[in-house]
Amino acid sequence: ARLALRVLDEVDSTNAEVLRQISKDGEGLPVSVADCQTAGRGRRGRSWISPRGENLYLSMGLTFHGGFAVLDGLSLVLGVAVANALEQLGASEIGLKWPNDVFLPHGKLGGILVELQGELQEGVVQVVAGIGINVHMSDLEGADQPWSSLATAFPGLEWSRNRIAGAIITAVVDAARLFSDQGFRDFREPWQKRDIFLGKQVEARGGEIKGTGSGIDENGNYLLRTEREVIPVRAGEISLRVT
Ligand code: BTN
């Protein structure tokens, strides 16, 4: 794929930047990386702490055909692509917290924020996939949960943000193509083997449902096993937490 790559010193949010890039309708797949963000965005309206020079802030514009329904599963597909890319570079034991947080045994390593640009022509859907990975960050002031970084978890390796960006961009382009052509099918098994909720007691919908984490179904819904049944939980519907 041809990329329209922008490397920025500082930006509000690379996701916002790619949304602007898309609306200008240039050539190539829009990609932005920045050295720091002044208004980094996280999921659920939270902000994403984005200090200068220490981490990867990357966003890519992706186009899909077939309407919004095709986006079911995309978050999980991106998580698998990012985990594969990091393991290619020497990381190990990368876990995924449904739907798409990137985890190490000691805490959150990164996050993915998918934002919708909208439907341009009938059936053509454009999204921005924003990926933040903690690379060198040594102190995360204001973090609301345990976190980790590549350099602290794998100190023996050299963590170049350029190489990480290259590996992730390639993995995401390849995964998005496979997902467009064949749907979620081939991603179920690679996602499940990284499931950090597997076998754990998990609650959903603010405690309304409690069950044992049991992987995902063929569409990427999370499955909670209770004494009586297996309940599928839809992406976007709730957040899961270990009880
Ligand atoms: C999460 O809440 O876990 C998702 C965090 C996503 C952060 C990345 S950093 C690059 C891109 N630009 C943003 O403003 N957010 C995403």
Automatic annotation (TrEMBL):
Q: Where is the BPL/LPL catalytic domain?
A: 1-180
Give a GO cellular-component term: cytoplasm
User: GO: which molecular function terms?
Assistant: ATP binding; biotin--[biotin carboxyl-carrier protein] ligase activity; DNA binding
Q: Which residues bind biotin?
A: 13-15, 37, 41-43, 108
Q: What is any one GO biological process for this UniProt entry?
A: regulation of DNA-templated transcription
Is DNA-binding given among the entry's keywords?
yes
Q: Which domain of life is it from?
A: Bacteria
| Record's catalysed reaction(s) | biotin + L-lysyl-[protein] + ATP = N(6)-biotinyl-L-lysyl-[protein] + AMP + diphosphate + H(+)
What are its E.C. numbers? Answer: 6.3.4.15
Does this entry carry the keyword Repressor?
Answer: yes
Chain's role: Acts both as a biotin--[acetyl-CoA-carboxylase] ligase and a biotin-operon repressor. In the presence of ATP, BirA activates biotin to form the BirA-biotinyl-5'-adenylate (BirA-bio-5'-AMP or holoBirA) complex. HoloBirA can either transfer the biotinyl moiety to the biotin carboxyl carrier protein (BCCP) subunit of acetyl-CoA carboxylase, or bind to the biotin operator site and inhibit transcription of the operon.
Family per similarity comment: Belongs to the biotin--protein ligase family.
Under which name does UniProt file this protein?
Bifunctional ligase/repressor BirA
Q: Which gene encodes it?
A: birA
- Whole protein: which stretch is covered? 78 to 320 of 321
